[in-house]
Design goal:
Blueprint (H helix, E strand, L loop, with lengths): L8 E5 L2 E5 L5 E3 L1 H7 L3 H14 L1 H26 L13 H14 L2 E13 L4 E11 L2 E10 L9 H18 L5 E8 L4 E7 L4 H18 L1
Parallel strand pairs: 6-7
Antiparallel strand pairs: 1-2, 2-3, 4-5, 5-6, 7-8
Helix pairs in contact: 2-3, 3-4
Length: 223
């Protein structure tokens, strides 16, 4: 590894995920921060979707999507480590393998892998998280995130993903004295179509801080 990445322990407190840093500080995960500060229109759309399907069906579909994402992430991690992708008696659905094989077209653009599933935190913005991949993509140092989706997504559909990558960059730059300014989102849909989004992370720092501040304001109210 290019850096000596520290490990952190994740804990769940009242439905929120926090990470404990090696200094003993507890910071909320960036996914918790973004989830708890979701814009009203997005939250309303999610509730409408759940209502239209019925809560049981919606929860089942959400779990299936999460399980597919977890499986694809594991296969990607092994591929980048140059390990055997499918090991032992493992069996994966055609949908999962199609999603992974589509991502392989993009994974080959990763020229260096500095770290995978890296725990990061920032004293500056008081947030933590676990980043999919940090390395060099098409010659540029990047925060790289792998996503699965049930449909093809447009740029406007992934605003929170961009904020997530911006947070990881701030954390990594602070902890390891890097200057990462670019994020790459590699996404595969259920149909196996690969998408690539390149993000100038400097453009999202203010929006990120607005959401972080909103989260901490909510914590004060709850306490």
């Amino acid at each position: 590894m290019k850096f000596n990445y520290e490990e952190m322990t994740a804990v769940s407190l009242e439905g929120k995920r926090f990470y404990e840093t090696v200094q003993g500080k507890f910071y909320p995960s960036i996914t918790t921060v973004l989830g708890k500060t979701m814009p009203e229109e997005k939250s309303a759309a999610l509730k409408n979707w759940q209502t239209s399907l019925g809560m049981d069906v919606a929860q089942k579909k959400t779990k299936e999507a999460a399980d597919r994402g977890t499986a694809v992430h594991l296969l990607v991690e092994r591929y980048l480590k140059k390990e055997q992708v499918v090991q032992g008696n493992e069996k994966y659905s055609n949908e999962i393998m199609s999603s992974f094989n589509a991502l392989k077209l993009k994974l080959n653009n990763i020229e260096e892998v500095w770290g995978q599933e890296v725990a990061l935190a920032s004293d500056l913005i008081k947030v933590a998280g676990r980043c999919d991949c940090i390395g060099v993509y098409k010659g540029v140092p990047c925060i790289i995130d792998f996503k699965t989706s049930g449909r093809i997504k447009s740029d406007k559909d992934i605003e929170d993903y961009k904020l997530q990558l911006c947070a990881y960059a701030i954390m990594h730059n602070e902890m390891y004295n890097t200057n990462i300014e670019t994020g790459v989102i590699l996404m595969t849909s259920a149909a196996g179509f690969p998408q690539e989004f390149t993000v100038n992370l400097n453009d999202y720092a203010q929006n990120l801080m607005d959401r972080v501040n909103k989260f901490y304001d909510q914590l004060e109210v709850e306490s």
